Amino acid sequence: MNLASVLPLAVVMVAGPQVISAIFLASSRDAKRSSVAFLAGSGLATLTGLSVWYLVFHLIRGGGDGDKDDGTRRLIDWIVLAILLVLMVLVYLRRKRSEPPKWMGKLEEAGPRFAFVLGILLFLAMPSDEATMAAVAGSLAGHGKPWPHLLPFLFVTLLLLALPLVALLVFGQRAVAVLPKIRNWANNHSWLVSEAVILIFVAIVASDLTR
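Above: the chain's sequence. Below: its structure in token form.
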């Protein structure tokens, strides 16, 4: 198990209400400040969640040296595999909504403070994100990777979440016209991308278990 194998799960982290909220905020009245505040809240929540799960799995591993404790590593791999299967169910259950929740319409008038709190809540209170963070942290901790290995995953997650803001800064009003179309596509199809990414990671974990 290496760092590159967990990075695609960042797609699962942002798919759904997270990226849709980011798109709404990029089209809001105070788009730049609200988007940055949303990213700050999301980053804080993700870093906290990853760190807590990393500590949990590090304690399960017992502070052993990498793969020397093969039995514990395999136990954690089985736990991660179970989490991934639960995550697949969660993603499927939320797979399609005809339109975003009504509260998202209020994001067009949201200020930075609201956006910051929303970023925290969307990443700490969503079962699918908790499962994703647990899978990532468990995979890295179970294979003896140090805590800083979590940071690239955090960076990729925030980079994906920042794409609507980047589009706004680069393309201006042209981006504002296109973002609703991207939002609708994400609302209807992002679950398929998430399921594909999870399946790939399931295959990686299963392959590791058969070694």
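The radius of gyration is 18 Å.
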